[in-house]
Each structure stands twice: as C-alpha cells, then as structure tokens.
Amino acid sequence: MHATTSSLFLLVVTSTTFFLTGAIQLQRPNGRGCIPAERNALLSFKKGITADLTNRLSSWHGRDCCQWRGVRCSNKTGHVLRLHLRNQNPDASSVDGCDDVNALFENMASLQVLDLSFCLNNNLVMKGNFKNLYSLEILYITDNGMNGDIAVFMEWLSQCALDTLQELHLGHNNFTGALPNFIGRFTSLTVLDLSNNNLTGSIPPELGNCSYLVNLDLSNNQFSGTPPKLGNCSSLITLDLSYNQLSGIVSTELVASPNLTSLDLSNNNFIGITSLDALINLNLSSNYLHGNIPNKIGAIRSLESLDLSKNMFFGEIPWSLSNLTSLSYLNLSYNNLSGRIPTGRQLDTLNADDPSLMYIGNSGLCGPPLLSTCSGNDNGIDGNERSSRQQELKLMSFYLGLVLGLAAGMWMVFCALLLKKTWRIAYFKFSDKLYDKIYVFVVVKWAFVTRKD
Ligand SMILES: *[C@@H]1O[C@H](CO)[C@@H](O)[C@H](O)[C@H]1NC(C)=O
Ligand SMILES: *[C@@H]1O[C@H](CO)[C@@H](O)[C@H](O)[C@H]1NC(C)=O
Ligand SMILES: *[C@@H]1O[C@H](CO)[C@@H](O)[C@H](O)[C@H]1NC(C)=O
Ligand SMILES: *[C@@H]1O[C@H](CO)[C@@H](O)[C@H](O)[C@H]1NC(C)=O
Ligand SMILES: *[C@@H]1O[C@H](CO)[C@@H](O)[C@H](O)[C@H]1NC(C)=O
Ligand SMILES: *[C@@H]1O[C@H](CO)[C@@H](O)[C@H](O)[C@H]1NC(C)=O
Ligand SMILES: *[C@@H]1O[C@H](CO)[C@@H](O)[C@H](O)[C@H]1NC(C)=O
Ligand SMILES: *[C@@H]1O[C@H](CO)[C@@H](O)[C@H](O)[C@H]1NC(C)=O
Ligand SMILES: *[C@@H]1O[C@H](CO)[C@@H](O)[C@H](O)[C@H]1NC(C)=O
Ligand SMILES: *[C@@H]1O[C@H](CO)[C@@H](O)[C@H](O)[C@H]1NC(C)=O
C-alpha cells in the first residue's frame, strides 16, 4: 500500500517534470531561444521597414528570434543582448525604414549593443522612449538624418543608461544645440562621437569628468569658445576637434592625458601654441596660429605627423625639427615663414616625390628643396655640408649596387644549377675534386709544419 502511493507520487512528479521541461523546450528550443515579448518587438520593428532593399531581414521568420540575422541573445537567459541593424549598403536609395523603433526601445531591457546606423531616414528616433534600455552599453545611430536638440536626446539617455553607456556614436546627423553639462555624469563613457552635426556653444568642462574617455570626436560642428581643460581625461588617446570655431591657445593644459597620441585641432580659430608633448599626430592646419614655430616642437620626439599648414607662423623654421627622427609627414605650407629651410636626417627623406610641397606658400623661405637660393655666408657652409652628403649618398648607392650585383650573379648560378642536371653533376664533381685536393694539400702542409717543430 505504502509502496504504491510512493510510486504513484513518483509517477506524478516525473510526468509533471517531463511536461514542464517539454513546455520550456517548446518555448526555447535547444536550451536557447527567444523571449516572446522581444520577438514581437522585433517583428513590429520589421513591419516598420517599408523597403528592405538590402535584404537585411530575410532571415527574420520562425520562432527563435535568436537565430535571426543581426540578433544576439544571452545563452543563459534568452534575452536579446545585441542588435546589429546597421544598413550594410548605406546609399540613399536603400535607406527606407526603421520607422517603428518604439517597440524595440520599450521591450529590450537587456539590450547592451544597439546599432541602427544608416537606417532611419526621418526623426522618429527622437520620439522614441529610451527609458527601458537600462543595460545599454554601446549605441550607434550614425548617419540617420536625426535632428533636434542634442540636450533632449542626452536627457533621455541619461534616464536609463547613465552608468552603463560606454560608447555613443551619433556622427553624421543634424543635431543642434549645445552639449549639456550633465554629459560629465556619463562616467563610463569611453567613446563619444558627435562629429558632423550642427552643435553650437562651448564644450562643457564637465566632459573632463569622463575619466574613461579614450576617443573624443567633436569635429565638424560649430563649437566655439576656448576648449576646456580636459584635465581628468587621463585615458584620452585621440582628440579630434577639427572644423569648429574654437579659439584660444593650444597647450598641454588642454589635455593632460599622458596617453594622448593624436590631436587634431585643424580648421579652427586658434591663435597661439605653447608646449605640447608625447604626441604622434599633431594637426593644427588652418588656424590663426602666429608667432614663431616653437623651438620646443623638436622635443616631441614621438611625432610622426606634423601639419602646421595654413596658419600665420612667421620667422625661421626651427632647426630642432631635424631632431624629429620618426617624422613621416610634415606640412608647413601657406604660412609666412622665412629664412633657410632646415635639413638633415629625417627631414631630407620626407615627401620624396616633391619635397617642395611641404613648404609652398611661404614667400620668404630659401634653400633646398626650394629652387630659391639663400643669400649670405651660411649658404657656403651649408653648400659644403650638402655636397658631402651627396658624396655619401653616391658612395652608398655604389655599395648598394655592388651588393645587388653580387646577389644577382649568385642567384643566376644557383638557378642554372637547379635547372640543368648535367651542370649540376659537373659542378658537384668539380667541388668534390676541389675539396679532395684542398684536403690533401692542408693535411700534407700541416704534417710538414708540425714535423718541423
Ligand atoms: C552562446 O552559444 C554559441 C553557440 O553555442 C556560442 O558560439 C557563443 O559563444 C555563446 N555565447 C556566449 C556569450 O557564451
Ligand atoms: C539640418 O537642420 C537644418 C535646420 O533644421 C536644416 O535647415 C538643414 O537642411 C538640415 N540638414 C540636413 C543635412 O538634414
Ligand atoms: C546647420 O544649421 C544651419 C542653420 O540651421 C543649416 O543651414 C545647415 O545646413 C546645417 N548644417 C548641417 C550640416 O546640417
Ligand atoms: C567632477 O566630478 C566631481 C565629483 O564627482 C565634482 O566635484 C566636480 O565638480 C566635477 N567637475 C566638473 C568639471 O564637472
Ligand atoms: C577631476 O576629478 C577630481 C576628483 O573627482 C575633481 O575634484 C576635479 O574637480 C576634477 N577636475 C576637473 C577639471 O574636472
Ligand atoms: C595609458 O595607457 C596604458 C596602456 O594602455 C594604461 O595602462 C594606463 O592606465 C593609461 N594611463 C592612464 C592615465 O589612463
Ligand atoms: C590636417 O587637417 C586638414 C584639414 O582638416 C586636412 O586637410 C589634412 O589632411 C590633415 N593633415 C593630416 C596630416 O592628416
Ligand atoms: C637635438 O637633440 C640633441 C640631443 O637631445 C640636442 O643636444 C640638440 O640641441 C637638439 N638639436 C636641436 C637643433 O634642437
Ligand atoms: C609676414 O612676415 C613679415 C615679417 O616677417 C611681416 O612684415 C608681414 O606683414 C607678414 N605677412 C603676413 C601676411 O602676415
Ligand atoms: C600641404 O598642405 C597644402 C595645403 O593644404 C597642400 O596644398 C600641400 O599639397 C600639402 N603638402 C603635402 C606635402 O602634403
């Protein structure tokens, strides 16, 4: 009696378990699968796409939305983690849709990566409701023709992803207004790309509190004023503020990052430059920088690219430039520089096709690589130096020719041996004989020498 009740109980338990696992498996085949609410959100998004010209969504059918193209789910929970909906063929005719993003925004609480680039051709995303995207780490909405006040957009983002957001890519849109001060409260930001918008006002100093910021691109906007001291951006590696209306003096104070390697401040209204250090790329082209080019520039030994073209620098080019032995690009054209162009080391190797292009548009410059000769004493000294260098160069090319000739000769012999059997046999016979002869000669001589001792 006891046994039958317990076995009955066991039967009930096992069948219930079986039923339950069966049900779960129905919903999430292979242990993975799709949360129904998220699947519906994706289908609703798909419906909003009026023309899927690049056939992005052809795989979007069937129960398991985790198998759909561009959708990545968590293996553990089944929630959608990543949505890569970037239009892969971003030419105007194929952009048509992504109208219904609200369903996505409202139902994807676990979403970490969202890429809607080149997708929207209207402004609907600005009406979207971000507040449920509280896991968002990376957001790409590049080139979507979005307009409106950037502050409003950022406000929405701050309501959900203030602590989680790491990368924000909003380049090539039509956002307007000023960057709000509370940008400094997105403390996890590593990449901020707001390039090619229509942003105005000054760059908020609070950006200096984004201490994880690695890449900051605010290029091609209408930012004005003096850029703030981004003192706490100690992780910054690239800073691009080109094509704005920024003014003031360029100095190390702007960015105290020891890791900054690339600084592009070209096409602004900067008027002066003080010390800068440890950069690899420095572009200050098209500003109003005036005065002498600081002699200290020769101390930035890491510099590989230096563009100071289209400014108002005057005076002589500092000879310390020849200390920049890593330099592979230099442009000093269209300034008001005068005097002898420095030569030596790396400077003589740059822009080999037409070195004069580095210096054009400076009426007072003289000496090679320009055609105009310098007047005065130092001409002779430099002339001597130059001719001795030319001599060196000739000698170098002579040795190079010698080595190349030798190598070619050896190669021909080797090839001949490789291809022609009879020659090969003859060669080895000959070398064998030679070896025997030398061996006998040496042994006899050696015996002769040692016996004499
Ligand atoms: C989930 O599973 C797939 C295939 O089984 C595997 O390729 C992927 O790396 C897994 N993802 C994670 C986050 O573990
Ligand atoms: C950007 O917005 C301005 C003002 O709203 C408008 O005049 C301009 O045509 C827009 N530009 C683009 C590229 O959408
Ligand atoms: C920026 O805004 C101005 C005026 O609103 C407009 O004329 C211009 O086209 C906009 N620029 C871009 C790149 O949208
Ligand atoms: C940076 O953050 C600190 C503390 O969070 C705050 O005291 C300071 O005022 C902030 N600086 C700026 C420029 O926002
Ligand atoms: C840098 O961070 C410190 C500590 O959080 C803060 O006191 C200071 O105001 C910040 N400086 C700037 C320029 O934001
Ligand atoms: C500079 O970069 C190195 C290597 O990536 C990193 O270890 C270091 O923490 C960075 N320094 C700062 C101040 O972020
Ligand atoms: C510097 O910037 C100017 C204009 O922004 C650009 O034309 C030039 O190619 C840049 N120079 C380098 C070396 O990238
Ligand atoms: C180049 O560097 C050397 C070694 O640091 C220094 O002695 C010299 O003065 C520098 N040359 C110029 C022209 O600055
Ligand atoms: C160029 O510099 C000279 C002095 O070196 C100055 O007299 C002249 O006005 C400057 N020209 C321009 C266009 O700045
Ligand atoms: C330097 O810049 C000027 C103006 O931007 C350009 O015409 C010239 O070709 C550049 N020279 C080199 C060597 O790139």
Keywords:
2 domains; alpha/beta; single chain; 453 residues; 12-stranded mixed β-sheet; Leucine-rich repeat, LRR (right-handed beta-alpha superhelix)
What's the arrangement of secondary structure elements?
Layout: H1 2-27, H2 36-47, E1 71-73, E2 80-84, H3 102-107, E3 113-115, E4 138-140, E5 147-149, H4 150-161, E6 167-169, E7 174-178, E8 191-193, E9 198-200, E10 215-217, E11 224-225, E12 238-240, E13 245-250, E14 262-264, E15 269-273, E16 281-283, E17 290-291, E18 305-307, E19 312-315, E20 329-331, E21 336-340, E22 364-366, H5 378-419, H6 421-452
Parallel strand pairs: 2-3, 3-4, 4-6, 5-7, 6-8, 7-9, 8-10, 10-12, 11-13, 12-14, 13-15, 14-16, 16-18, 17-19, 18-20, 19-21, 21-22
Antiparallel strand pairs: 1-2
Bound molecules: 2-acetamido-2-deoxy-beta-D-glucopyranose (NAG) (10 copies).
One 2-acetamido-2-deoxy-beta-D-glucopyranose binds near residues 298, 319, 320 and 323.
Protein name: Leucine-rich repeat-containing N-terminal plant-type domain-containing protein
Subcellular location: Cell membrane
Keywords: Cell membrane, Glycoprotein, Leucine-rich repeat, Membrane, Phosphoprotein, Repeat, Signal, Transmembrane, Transmembrane helix
